[in-house]
Amino acid sequence: MPPRIQSRSVSNTLLPYLTAPSSSSSSLSSLPSLSSTSSQCLSRQFSATAAPQGQTKLRRQMFEWLNNEGSVFKHHVPGEANYLTRLKQRGPETAEKSRPFPNNQSFFSEPILSEELRNEVYNRVVEQKKSVRIVSVELGIDMKRIAAVVRLVELEKRQRTQGKPLALPYARAIHEMVPTTPLAEKGERQTYHEPINDLPAHPLTGSQIFYPVPESRSFNRVEAGRVFSGAPAMEHSEAAEINHPSDLAEKIIEDPNSIGWVGKGANARQILQPADVRIPHPHMVALERDRLANPNERLAVADLQSKRLERQDAIEQARRERIQARREKKLTVVSPEESRFDYRIKDTIYTKETTGADGRGSKAAGRRYGVPHRDRTRGEVKIPTRVEA
Amino acid sequence: MRNRASNTLSKGKIRQSWSKYNLYNLQRFRSPPTANRTFFQQKWSAKAASRAYHGEQVRERQWKRMFNHRIRSVIPMNAADLAADDGSLVSSGRGSGLDKDGKSAYQTRPIPYSHMTFAPLERRLDVAIFRALFASSARQARQFVIHGAVTVNGQKMKHPSYLLNPGDLFQVDPDRVLYATGHTKTSFERREGRLARRKAKSQKSQEAEDAEAAEAESKETAKEDIKETPKEDTKETLKALLAQAKSVMSAGKDTLAPQRKQELRGFQQAVRRVLSRSESSTILADSLEAQFSQLTLLLKAKRSEKPVKKEVKPRPEDAFASDNGDTEAVSAKRDTEAAVSDKLSEAFAQATLGNDVDASELSDEEFDTLQRALTQMRDNPLDNSKTYSTPWQPRQYMSAFAFIPRYLEVNQNICAAVYLRHPVARPGSAEVPTPFGESIATPAYGWYLRRRW
Amino acid sequence: MVLRIRLARFGNKHNPFFNIVVAQARSARGAKPLEVIGTYNPIPKRPTNLYDENAEARPYKEISLDRSRAKYWLGVGAQPSDPVWKLMGMAGLVAPKPTTYDKA
């Protein structure tokens, strides 16, 4: 391999400090040496000696490309994406810029959360004690991502206090290379990081169904869901109660068991609900409806919305507490003085229901008798399938 | 397992790797021709190309078991649209939706389903580590897992084929990440590291003998030392420190490595010297963290004391040089002094007085430079004991591969990431990073649709 | 015949796992018992370092037990073996067995 001489570039370890928001221009101007040295190196060729005899044509071509066209990829320019697509691109197109693979038109390098935005999320959730749902709508970040950010920032804080090693220069470099969503300045609108109301396509909706409906009847999303899941059409009185599919959302949040079932036994499944119920933020539809109904009463609508959110939050909180209490009731922890260990004692139930008629039921406590182990069979997953957090 | 993951130029296969060979292959890759080729041939070559990239470390049989023809997709919903209409508009007329201009009511871009063929592989731990930019190739990520540098939900996970569940938090040892993503050491640096290790080894054995003798000695000499240091000295050291900071900050990448290292080392020594003169240096230690917090405190104190004045003194270049030379020359002597005066605390009051005088001569910008140089010294230190070139800088050609897919949330500071959900397709985009276009993705999907086993 | 509440070893080599069973005293360890009333995993698990409250938590061992069945079998005269006595003592079903030096 020919000797590697670093050609033109930017100083990537130092530039982060130099381009710091405070006094970036002044510090850059105070660097006369940067430009002079880099121009010096520009003129240097990749290799001073002639190509060795043993080098193949492909290899020669590769180094030729790396030294000419490809040299832009050697080092990154802070704050700019540096993907292969920039070679082909002529005009300044932003969408084009974030495509890492020239052949793949449908994969984009999506922005990541900037450090400030991440801290802001943590601040709002942990210090201001806002609910994840509200922060998600405010900042335009998916609820799962918000939960993850809180977890990660908490972990980071603890590692900092413990003095564990961090990868700070690496983090800075990544945030320079990858597009980021910045935190909005005071008074500005926060740009949404990602779409927050994603509706997962349900497998039942994959099929095409011929379902004749009288033209006199309006066929809405609730009924379409029932058709897809094979449930009988609603009674007229029942259908009349539902003004808009989003009414159903409110009902289901209050009582998740109100969703009906189709089929029997192992084939039983819940009736497919309309999009208004299945999206992560059903309350946003309700808000839009309020806005449509009362276009001139913004304050009243906002007030209504905050009350609705509070109510739904309280319901969810109560449900979570109930589940937690039930789990704790089943578990007692004993920590004997003389032992190095704690003992977690869980309640189980030994009845005909758990063991089954022949005593070999899979729900019974303990390892089973009279059932062969599948741990050596082919195709069985032998590594852990989950890790408890 | 045989390593087939080489980036040979003659084969021209694209791999999950940041190597420059791979970059070149990626750049020159053209979809295989379809003219005069049977469907089987087309599907075969599409499958071969895409499997060379996706899960090349996974056996074909294992992958075939993982493959699922059903592909996850989502539609971003607009709350206003949902509120405006209960769906009857779409189903009205003859079921195709009525609209004013004869266009369909909802227009969406097509969902690229076939790009999602290899989505199940993105669940693998090694692939996720590579996607989170913690390793420079999927093979390297796999090695990290096998070597025990990866935890999942706080527990060590040694199986690269562990399938992450939504909500799983995985973390890689930051040192490994810095090694994987940083510049490799030059032979010069490797030699220095070797020497340092040897020196530390011999010192360790000596220290045991010397410890007692040294302690007694230091107590005697220390007091004399402090009396000797005149006020002028502290003033000069701060000046020198600043000069060093400036040169450290201004040095571009093109400065040759040894020279730059010399500068950095000189700066570190100068910092240590200033510290040895400041007050409350009880924790004056080799730990950079302690040094940094001390110095920033010192700087802040000075800044608040000093009157606001904004004159920037243009310093001639030669003055820098002489300053540098000066400090270099005396640094060796001073260093021993500093080491000796380690354990003192009260007697530093004098030295601080001297420092205050200095402070008024520094401008705001100079403070800034100093502070940033200090931050750099703390965060990205020169340390030959590391496995990567220090101070750390990203490896070459990394930026062309740097993207983080949406199904991961990564915290780079602690090298941890959360697998939020399975990758999904949405109108116009697919979340599985694949370098291939439609002409390869679709035949490859078709290949696996039919059971051939 | 004496009824015993005892442990039956399952699991693999170096990876023990016990069923807490009610069985005839003279029956084989691996024989089918009258009832399986719980399990005991003697391999301690370490709490993860992901949460603050786990910072100085001790490693723990997992027991599962059907208390009502255990009480019933104790009531009809089943005798716990020593290890099971220890586990049941922790669950508060029997008084802890006096150790040898307590007796003396």
From TrEMBL, chain A:
Gene Ontology process terms (BP): mitochondrial translation
Q: Which GO MF terms does the UniProt record name?
A: structural constituent of ribosome
Q: Which stretches does the entry tag as region Disordered?
A: 354-389
**Xref: InterPro entries:** Ribosomal_mS45
**Which Pfam families would you find in this protein's record?**
Bot1p
Enumerate composition-biased segments (Basic and acidic residues): 372-389
Q: Which UniProt keywords apply?
A: Coiled coil
Give the record's GO CC terms: mitochondrial small ribosomal subunit
- Coiled coil: present as a keyword of the record? yes
Q: Which residues form a coiled coil?
A: 301-328
Protein name per UniProt? Ribosomal protein S35, mitochondrial
UniProtKB/TrEMBL annotation, chain B:
Q: Would you name any one GO CC term? A: mitochondrial small ribosomal subunit
Its annotated compartments are: Mitochondrion
Molecular function via GO: rRNA binding; structural constituent of ribosome
Domain RNA-binding S4: residue ranges: 123-183
- Locate the region Disordered: 188-235, 308-332
Residue ranges of coiled coil: none
Question: Could you tell me the keywords of this UniProt record?
Answer: Mitochondrion, Ribonucleoprotein, Ribosomal protein, RNA-binding, rRNA-binding
Q: Which GO terms describe its biological process?
A: ribosomal small subunit biogenesis
Which Pfam families does the record match to this protein? S4
Q: In the UniProt record, does the keyword Nuclease occur?
A: no
Main localization of the protein?
Answer: mitochondrion
Q: Where is the composition biased (Basic and acidic residues)?
A: 216-235, 308-318
Q: Which InterPro entries does the annotation name?
A: Ribosomal_uS4 (IPR022801), Ribosomal_uS4_CS (IPR018079), S4_RNA-bd (IPR002942), S4_RNA-bd_sf (IPR036986)
Function, as annotated, reads: Component of the mitochondrial ribosome (mitoribosome), a dedicated translation machinery responsible for the synthesis of mitochondrial genome-encoded proteins, including at least some of the essential transmembrane subunits of the mitochondrial respiratory chain. The mitoribosomes are attached to the mitochondrial inner membrane and translation products are cotranslationally integrated into the membrane.
* Family according to the record: Belongs to the universal ribosomal protein uS4 family.
**What is this protein identified as?**
Small ribosomal subunit protein uS4m
Automatic annotation (TrEMBL), chain C:
Keyword Ribonucleoprotein in annotation: yes
Q: Which UniProt keywords apply?
A: Ribonucleoprotein, Ribosomal protein
Q: What is this protein called?
A: Ribosomal protein S16
Q: Which is one Pfam family of this protein?
A: Ribosomal_S16
For this chain, one GO molecular function annotation is: structural constituent of ribosome
A single Gene Ontology biological process assigned to it is: mitochondrial translation
Q: Which HAMAP family match?
A: Ribosomal_bS16
Q: Name one GO cellular component term.
A: mitochondrial small ribosomal subunit
Q: Which residues form a coiled coil?
A: none
Q: Can you tell me which family this protein belongs to?
A: Belongs to the bacterial ribosomal protein bS16 family.
